[in-house]
Specification:
By secondary structure, this protein is an all-alpha fold. It contains 25 helices and three strands.
């Protein structure tokens, strides 16, 4: 823990367990310190000592760190937002020869602009950073810099250099554990981070220069304007001056002024690319979705209404207001907004899908079917559109069409939980009780309700003969659940 913190600490409050009772906090800290003092932590990770890591050791560490980190972060699950970041990340990583790791990108909810990498190519980006970017090149510039850190194995390097744990720093960081929030906790957290940065937790200047050098090459090879990386650093600098706070990103990525200067010189030697202003509209749509997903609905509505006063024809603002009204349950206003958005962009599958969902929510199944059929015709991989088209068919009593739509969803995403419940209902309506119970079983298993899942799987077995493939599948599910319950 002491080593992988180096240069990769997202926000102090993530690690403050303010919801836990005091005695559990004390046990946690004492156990952690004992483990660290005795080297047990590294053996737990499968690493004999805190020395330079092999690729396989870094992969093992990355998986464990990710599992722990994800418990403390509120990850964004919106498939459209995630898809956008994944595409930008893939654009960059596709330029890398001999990739050391499979890169994975995650978005977490935080208004602070931040991005960080943990071992083995897991890269996290905050919603605050996404909304601060002005174009895709700026966003890609941040991703490429973090990818540079991973490819240069700076995390492993810090671990090698920090072979002796700084217990004073650890104690300062963990002091925040004992305060359950409020001003005192914030003060301790701020002190802990400041102390950590001063002592050992930030990237070195050489690390930053190497990550910038690698990153800007990846960025420009991917077709982005390298000035996007510089432009975003300037934004962070302004953000620091305007808010009188240091963004978390700058705590672990120091000397921003020097970075801007040498990146300017570096960029002069690279071929000019032209995507800095491209995809601005796409990014704005993503930013609108982030606002709807992460702000209070009232604040989102007020923001879009205010912005539309000076920009009445901007698609992202019209669409964002419609999404916010939909979330608010004001389907009439949402429908008006989506219709207006379609006058600007008539072949947009997502807008058609959202319009169809609003019609369905108002019981207008004929209008819903029309919009959703157009949506899946434009994008046949949109699982949400197929799911809601299935709901329309189910509502109208067209059970076979509903099953076909739901099966499309399953093929696109086997972990789409609600589709199994709906399939159970529809199969039940058709009198196919074996299929109904089997799908209910999968639904409850994915929900973690294992007793209910077992009940339905056992009921499903009553409808299948001994030598059928379905029976073998169900028995395998039952066996797996029984193992997990032990």
């Amino acid at each position: 823990m002491g080593c992988w913190f180096s240069g990769n600490l997202p926000e102090s409050r993530i690690f403050i367990m303010k919801d836990y009772p005091l005695y559990k906090k004390i046990i946690f800290v004492l156990t952690l310190i004992i483990f660290l003092l005795n080297g047990f932590y590294w053996r737990f990770l499968g690493i004999e000592s805190c020395q330079a890591l092999t690729i396989e050791e870094e992969r093992a560490m990355g998986k464990k760190v990710k599992l722990e980190l994800d418990k403390h972060l509120e990850l964004i699950k919106n498939q459209s937002i995630q898809g956008y970041i994944d595409r930008a990340g893939k654009n960059i990583t596709s330029q890398i020869e001999n990739k050391l790791f499979d890169f994975n990108f995650y978005i977490y909810k935080s208004s602070d602009p931040n991005a960080f990498a943990i071992p083995a190519g897991y890269i996290y980006i905050s919603t605050g950073l996404i909304t601060l970017a002005e174009n895709e090149a700026e966003l890609a510039g941040v991703l490429s810099h973090e990818i540079g850190h991973v490819m240069a194995r700076h995390i492993a390097e810090r671990i090698e250099k920090e072979s002796k744990l700084n217990i004073a720093t650890l104690a300062a960081i963990l002091a925040g554990v004992f305060l359950g929030g409020g001003q005192a906790s914030g003060a301790v957290g701020a002190f802990s981070i400041a102390t950590a940065q001063t002592l050992s937790l930030k990237y070195s200047r050489e690390n930053e220069e190497e990550a910038d050098r690698l990153g800007i090459n990846y960025l420009t090879k991917a077709g982005y304007d390298g000035s996007g990386m510089i432009g975003f650093l300037k934004k962070l600098k302004r953000h620091r001056l305007e808010s009188f706070q240091v963004p978390p990103y700058l705590l672990t990525h120091p000397e921003v002024e020097k970075r801007i200067d040498y990146l300017d010189l570096m960029l002069m030697r690279l071929p000019k690319q032209g995507q800095s202003e491209n995809n601005v509209d796409n990014l704005r749509i993503i930013q609108a979705k982030v606002i709807v997903d992460t702000w209070t609905t009232k604040n989102a509505v007020d923001h879009f209404k205010s912005s539309l006063e000076s920009n009445p024809k901007r698609l992202d603002l019209i669409y964002g207001l419609a999404l916010a009204n939909k979330k608010l349950g004001d389907y009439d206003q949402a429908i008006k907004g989506f219709k207006m958005a379609l006058t600007i962009h008539p072949e947009d599958g997502e807008i058609l899908r959202e319009l169809g969902i609003c019609y369905l929510s108002e019981g207008k199944t004929e209008n819903a079917a029309q919009s959703l059929k157009k949506s899946v015709a434009i994008n046949e991989k949109d699982k949400d559109a197929w799911y809601n088209l299935g709901r329309v068919y189910q509502e109208n009593g067209n059970f076979q069409e509903a099953i076909e739509s739901y099966q499309r969803v399953k093929r696109l995403d086997t972990d789409f939980v609600d589709v199994y419940y709906n399939l159970g209902v529809v199969y039940g309506k058709k009198g196919l009780l074996g299929d109904a119970h089997q799908n209910f079983g999968i639904f409850f298993k994915l929900k973690g309700k294992l007793d209910s899942a077992l009940f339905h799987f056992n009921k499903a077995l009553e409808y299948y003969g001994k030598d059928t493939e379905e029976r073998r599948k169900i028995l395998k599910e039952v066996e797996e659940i029984q193992k997990n319950k032990k």
